Amino acid sequence: MTDVFIGVGSNINREENILSGIKTLHEQFGHLRLSPLYSSAAVGFEGDDFLNLVVGFSTVLTVGELSQRLRDIERCHGRANDAPKFSSRSLDLDILLYGETVGEVDGVVLPRAEVLFNAFVLQPLADIAPQSCHPVSGQAYGELWRAMAAQNRQRLEPYHGLDDALARILL
User: Fold this and answer.
1) pTM of whole model > 0.90?
2) Mean local confidence (pLDDT), 101-114
3) Is residue 93 part of a domain?
C-alpha cells in the first residue's frame, strides 16, 4: 500500500461536485483523510471561485492506474476529456504525492509542482500532513505553508458550508 495525496477542486456546481467526488473516492478507496475546505480564486483564467481540499488515502494501484481511475471519476462528474488546462471544472482530481516518488511515472510528474506554489494545495496539505516532508525539498509541509502564508500572495478562505455533509459521507 502506498500513501497518496490528491488535490480536489471544483468551481462548477462546486458543493454538489465536491460532495459527490468525495463520496466516490470513499467508495473506491475506503478510509479517507480530508483537509478542511477552502475557497480560492481561479488561477490562470477568469472564472468563478473554486472549492479545494486535499484527500489522503492508501492504495495498491500504480500511479498510472490511479491516474486513470481519477480521470474516470472526473468524467463521471461531467469533465470533458478535451477541456483546456486553464478552465472551469466540475471536478478536478490531481495526484499531488504518491509516497516518496520523484520524477515522471506513467505520464504523471511527482510530486506535483503545485504543492510548492499554490496556496489552495499547500495549505490543505499542511493541515492533514504538517510534519510530512516534501520528497524533493525535504521541508515539512507545515513549514512550507508558514513561509508561503507569510508572503500573503494568494487569497484563500476557509469554507465550512459542507463540514457536516462531508462528515456524514465518511461515517
Assistant:
1) yes
2) 96
3) yes
